[in-house]
Amino acid sequence: MKTHPVLFVCLGNICRSPLGEGIFRELADKTGNGGLYPVDSAGTGAWHAGSPPDPRSVRIAAEHGIDISAQRARKIEQDDFDRFALILAMDRNNLRDLRRMASPSVLAKVHLFDSYATSQEVDVPDPYYGGPKGFEIVYNMLFAGCTSLIEKLAAERTS
Known about the structure:
alpha/beta
């Protein structure tokens, strides 16, 4: 079967997008469809390239049985727009930056995460400067969105 690679993108690739990648991978694996949906994450900036996810993201993921500690931050590359079938921005600023980077032929692949996953025009807030509660809120938003996304992708495959 043809795969449908998914890329999660935030600003620095240390808080939101690693969580999105980890949650999505876990849910896809649990449904037996992990091989159909290769997943990765990236940032629009390179400030943290090569660094592990923020310890608070690692902690909240681990509290839910998901290990994201081996991930490493990277900046999105031009060939990502060709490699991934779906590129999901965590907020409108990330979306704007991605649209500026993408060629017109691939713009249809680039979406705001919640808009695509749940049909809500909501940004996933950046928890970097906040406390543990912010990371919990982000985890819950990403879990709900990834659950909906897995269902949506499965429905698209069968239609």
